[in-house]
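Wait, mind explaining this?

_____
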Amino acid sequence: MLSLEIKDANGRWLEEAATVLDAELLEYLATLETLPHLTGMHALRRLDPAEGTSLDETLRAALQADIEALAPRVRTRNLPEPPAWVGLEGLGDIRLGEELGWPGLVDVLNRLSRLLALAREPGVELWALGEE
């Protein structure tokens, strides 16, 4: 599980500007390997969740390009069906998960886009951190 978080120019974490990509969502994004241009999404899956990683400008640009490529395909549902629920990670109890589906996938892409926009501000960093 990865948490993408913003550190402002003063070194403070902005808790209101974070999003979690859990194992099911990362696995779903990995199924999009048939879309070879999704280099940013594939790079997220390869990050070691045990280590905090600052996402450099190249990776952020690749993620933005991925979002721009995925958005029209999500609107037309021209992708493999996203998981209906995420956050179950071996629990098997749907009450502990979070609904995803097509609306949730749109929300994830919107949150990622917002984080990338914030990361363009001077002195602001985007980090991928492991979640416990």
Remarks:
- The beta strands are 2-7, 13-21, 53-54, 85-86, 98-99, 125-130.
- Residues 42 and 69 are 14 Å apart (CA to CA).
- Residues 91-95 have pLDDT under 50 and may be disordered.
